[in-house]
């Protein structure tokens, strides 16, 4: 099965909406192996990778977390900030040193509410990312558990 193309911000948001979002950005750095967030914790920020690689993971009982997807430059890290109860559904770790743009989720949600066109554009972008991540997670879970299910049948 082929991996879908990454959904990069420049390919999805108009110049105007991208500029508006980026006006809220703060540059941050994560060293290699840094935990960016953990499943079940409060989702109050999100990031766009500038350089480096971030791995999204799902917890697996009795094992190390399973990597779901690797994210690189231009890609969104985190979508749980957009949907109540604003709790991370996955975990993220810097696999290499990472430079990223960080955004305060509450501020971006407020901007989205104030400008429905901007809000719709951001919502569609995050929705596309979410759909792709759901498919990636499904595929990864099948890779992890399908062999066990068929060997016990």
TrEMBL record:
Coiled coil: none annotated. Residues 9-112 form the Cyclic nucleotide-binding domain. Signal peptide: none annotated. This is Cyclic nucleotide-binding domain-containing protein. The lineage of its organism: Bacteria, Bacillati, Actinomycetota, Actinomycetes, Kitasatosporales.
């Amino acid at each position: 099965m082929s991996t879908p193309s990454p959904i990069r911000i420049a390919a999805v948001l108009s110049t105007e909406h991208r500029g508006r979002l980026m006006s809220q950005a703060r540059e941050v750095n994560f060293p290699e192996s840094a935990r960016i967030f953990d499943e079940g914790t409060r989702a109050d920020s999100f990031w766009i990778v500038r350089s480096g690689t971030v791995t999204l993971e799902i917890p697996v009982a009795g094992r190390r977390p399973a990597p779901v997807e690797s994210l690189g430059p231009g890609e969104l890290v985190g979508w749980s900030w957009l949907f109540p109860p604003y709790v991370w559904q996955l975990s993220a770790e810097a696999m290499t040193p990472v430079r990223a743009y960080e955004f305060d989720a509450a501020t971006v949600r407020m901007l989205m509410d104030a400008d429905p066109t901007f809000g719709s554009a951001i919502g569609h972008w995050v929705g596309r990312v979410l759909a792709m991540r759901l498919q990636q997670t499904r595929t990864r879970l099948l890779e992890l558990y399908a062999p066990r299910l068929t060997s016990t049948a």
